[in-house]
Amino acid sequence: MNVTLIGAGNLMTNLAPALAAVDDVCIRQVWSRTEASAKALSEMLGVDSTTDLTAVADADVFIIAVKDSALETLVPVLTSRHPEAVFLHTAGSMPMSLFEGFARHYGVLYPMQTFTKVKSVDFKEIPVFVEANDEKALEVVKRLSKGVSDNVYELSSDKRRYLHLAAVFACNFVNHCYHLSACVLEQQGIPFKVMLPLIDETARKVHQLHPHDAQTGPAVRYDQNVIERQMTMIDDEKTRQIYELLSKSIHDKL
Fold first, then answer.
1. Per-residue model confidence (pLDDT) at position 254
2. CB–CB of 63/90 below 8 Å?
3. pTM, 2 dp
4. How far is 97 from 157, CA to CA, in rounded Å?
5. Which residues pair with 130 in a beta bridge?
């Protein structure tokens, strides 16, 4: 199965090596808008690269991992040049239907994980959510997904929107709270690493307990003395609002 990769960002930098290790999968080329990104990933894989959409190599499958805003621009160009190929995008919040009217065979391959170029992940552990418009595309996306992950699920575009929303709360917002924590510590000359055992234990607990049952802290009992005192310690207005809203939300959900 010849595969051409469209995009060379955080997700593709992690997905591409996993795909390259799948039996009978041959990565033909990497396209990226920027030459540096295209070259970095293509050299890692030992394949050609291009920044020219009209020079993208023909393939059985095109996997598109770009910003959501770029998908609608790229899809018409790519599909018109390769009408018999299977097209897959990797976006959690974008519907499969964006291919309608452009491609014959298409689907979604969504690995639900946080990715960065500088830190590799074990793809076998990552849940991958797939869907397709026909049997040909479904066979292809399942074969690729099961080649890289031990956890593959069929999921509709509508349900995937909610999955992505849940991931924003569980990952992006939580990481922002880490950042706010780091800001508080830095102001007092305390290294962020002292938080790591607490962060690790919090994450371990939800492997055994529902998040509702794992919740602790002053907001659980809504200890106003502690909450009001801590709010006076926060200089940034937005951070103070976040603290207050989260505290109320924790108490209200219990």
1. 86
2. yes
3. 0.92
4. 8
5. 109, 154
